[in-house]
From TrEMBL:
Keywords: ATP-binding, Cell membrane, Kinase, Membrane, Nucleotide-binding, Phosphoprotein, Transferase, Transmembrane, Transmembrane helix, Two-component regulatory system. GO terms for molecular function: kinase activity. Residues 309-360 form the HAMP domain. The chain crosses the membrane at residues 12-32, 288-315. This is Histidine kinase. It is a multi-pass membrane protein. Signal peptide: none annotated. It is found in: Cell membrane. Pfam families: HAMP (PF00672), His_kinase (PF06580).
Amino acid sequence: MRIKTMTIKLKLVLLFFGFFCLPFLILGKFWYDRSMETIEYNAINNNQQLMRQINYNLDVYFSDIKKATLPLLAHPLVQQFVKIDPNNQYDYYDLSSRIRADLIPNMVYNRDDIYGLSIISLKGPYYSNIAFSDRVDSYRKEFADNNKDNFRILGISMTGDGTEVITVFRRIIDNETYVTAGYLIIDLSLNRTTDIINQAQLGKTGMISIVNTDDKYLYHPDPQKWQQLLPAKYKSHFENINTPYFTNGTGAGKSIVVYNRSASTGLTIVSEVPLRELMEDLIYFRNLTLGFVLLLIVLAFVTILSFSLSITRALSHLMNLMKKVEMGDLSIRAPLRKDEIGSLNRGFNLMLEDLNRLIKMMHTSHQKEKEMAIHQRESKIQMLQARINPHFLYNTLGVINAYAIIAKVKPISQMTVWLSDIFRYSIDNPEDTVSLAEEIQHMFNYIHIQKERYQSLEVDVDLDLNGLKDIHTLRLTIQPIVENAFIHGYEDYSIKPTYIGLRASFDDAGIKLLIIDKGRGMPPDLVETYNQAFDYMSEEQMLQASAPFGGIGMWNVHSRLRLEFGEPYGLSIVCSENTGTIVEIRMAYRKERSV
């Protein structure tokens, strides 16, 4: 077996990378890994200190709440309230009035962090200075499940007026029997807790959450996770108190999770910081260093090998040019030089020029004729497409203006977005094909705006948008027909639009799309005129400037579809009666438009 001899160029490259580049890359990798470990270690230590500080501040705060509410547990009015007979309405209203007059002002109105104060008796009666009835049953169940806790943080709840509060409860002990007689519910403003949390900054996207003793999120930057169970992965790590941190995710989404549990409240403070934020400066310095080193490598490589590789590089370049010529690229040229290789390059260039001249002589006349025919056809199609009536856009602007001046409501924002989508879609290159799903979505923007005008409009759509993504059609073929249904099916008869339906079916020839309205319909002779024009007009007649009947909207869409796809594709009116009209659009299967 014959061993292939290495070229001089390959030998020089292997020596250069083996004795210079490889050692440097190994050293750089070792330095980068050690730097990453050091930054991660420092970040964990800093976050642990922050979590301990936040937990300490929360402990102080809830300890203050305990001290502030302790006198209430033994207050005579509270003791009397939890002992009253549920059937004695007079005592209930009398004690409620005295609590409202004596206790509530001192506790609630003198502290901005206490939003509400409520008392629940195990005998049944309860009192609260806020809307509270919707939470009583859930709290009673909570007391039954946790009847040994003297002080417990229940979680974040929503009051009747929509205020977010952290709810805690305390047991009320009967001062005569020394058994639990009721519970004191304190609703604390969430702002005080978030102020404590926000004192710590964890980069741009780092976040801090609080987990209660039930392994549920007491607080999370995302309100959707409040009262949600902690992920199982987090819970398993939290049980290991010897290692109060772990990493979550992989690659660019990797983050450092640090947690600290309070012995006083049982709350666990959790911080999660994306590792990429901690490494931004290091990555920048690494990239800068790598760029500088690569520049040095390139300069050294060029300096050392420039002379010895000058000949082999020129020959390799010429070989690559010859391979491109074999692939059919005759536009390339070899560089000119003042040596023996330059003479070879000049001969190569002369050969390519002769080949190009022969090919151009063979194809010039045929190419010109083909280009003239294509340009003439596309210009006429574009002329037909550009004549779509824009009066709907002006009507829409009028509706938006009416909302802005009279209603001053949110729909103006939605209509503006839909209208901007319609403008953007309409002004794109009309020669481009789009997926049928995109065309349907454009029609939906039009329907959304019409629904703002006609609140009772019913839109009945039976389409599989995912199945229409691979079907391509011409731009602005569906919306003009739907607009035609609104104008001629409803508005011409001074009736409000009540129904628009869309149905799609497939057969061997293509897709059939039905557009249905429940307007007054058209006269039978007009329906026959339309269908005859759709079926029997020639291609030359379709390219004319005027339609064979009054309007140009339906004729424009039909002509473009027929010219693009051929027969039998285009429009037809299935039926048109006093109960409504059904228009059929037939389109062919086609993945891409030919260029």
